[in-house]
Design a protein that fits this description.
301 residues; mainly alpha; two-stranded antiparallel ribbon
């Protein structure tokens, strides 16, 4: 039993050391900076599209509630910038807003998710050999799929604690469920966020792997993202004063930093998955004919 625990701890250390080494070798910090640029391009068209869609839903102040929840994750100055941009862009003509949001989002998808696919290829250390039209369609499909999963996670958080009481009354659940609902709500939201990252890891890089093999990196990426977002908010609250340094650009700089950390967390989880796959391949007995945990598609072509 002790030898197995020692072996597992040794594997964990090897994976962590290799992951840190790959972060430097694959230029993950620089790729995260590039992704933050494309994330900025995609963020505002996506929010404009969301605002046009929620206008047709019979839920009062749904957009305000969604932005209120986002305020817990984004720096306060950046959240103020987002609110000002949406206030300036939105008009009573929701059809125009919706069409503009769709056009803007589709264009930025080709940029943002194409960059994400390339960055994940670098994290998995593979070359991209798929045709341009295929990666373009894949980018659109990934945007729709991950966007839907993130929207579900956001919706679960938006409904609030009162939804637990309403649900318990409708389906005749006990008061214990009402007490547990705040924790259930967070679990569901985090679960859908992890699922969205798993879908990204499973489909975006030019590798063939089992879907369950993407779970460690997905959990690690979401945990890092939540932790880094919390630390960044505390830093801006007590130490960082970008407005004094950058003036009116302070809120935009803070948003770029947050998106930079988001991209870095995604790449870090992908690098962890790649290293876990390598460790699994090294631990297989010689001659064992089992499907590989991860296979480079370009090497098979």
């Amino acid at each position: 039993m002790k030898s197995r625990v020692a072996m597992n701890s040794d594997i964990i250390r090897r994976v962590l050391f290799r992951t840190c080494d790959d972060v430097a070798r694959n230029y993950s910090l620089y790729m995260a900076a590039a992704l933050s640029y494309y994330f900025v391009l995609s963020l505002f068209p996506a929010l404009i599209l969301l605002s046009g869609m929620v206008a047709y839903l019979p839920v009062p102040n749904l957009l305000d509630q969604a932005l209120g929840f986002m305020a817990h994750l984004l720096p306060s100055d950046s959240m103020g910038l987002i609110r000002r941009v949406l206030t300036d862009v939105l008009t009573p003509n929701h059809k125009f807003v919706l069409s503009f949001g769709i056009l803007g989002t589709l264009w930025t998808i080709w940029c943002g998710f194409a960059a994400t696919i390339q960055a994940l290829n670098m994290a998995y250390e593979v070359r991209e050999v798929r045709p341009f039209w295929k990666t373009g369609l894949l980018a659109v499909g990934l945007a729709l799929t991950t966007g839907f999963l993130i929207l579900v996670a956001l919706s679960v958080m938006v409904v609030g604690p009162q939804f637990g009481e309403w649900l318990a009354g409708r389906v005749h659940l006990s008061a214990f469920f009402v007490l547990l609902w705040p924790y259930i709500r967070w679990t569901i939201a985090v679960g859908f966020a992890v699922l969205a990252i798993e879908v990204l890891y499973f489909l975006a890089p030019n590798v063939k792997q089992r879907f369950r093999a993407t779970l460690p990196g997905g959990v690690f990426a979401v945990a890092c993202w939540i932790g880094l977002s919390s630390l960044l908010e505390e830093y801006f609250r007590y130490f960082g004063r970008f407005n004094k340094t950058y003036g009116t650009l302070g809120a935009a700089i803070a948003l770029m930093v947050w998106l930079y950390l988001t991209g870095f967390a995604v790449l870090l989880g992908a690098t962890l998955n790649a290293e876990l796959a390598k460790i699994g391949e090294e631990g297989k007995p010689p001659g064992k004919e089992e499907p590989a945990a991860i296979t480079k598609l370009d090497s098979a072509a």
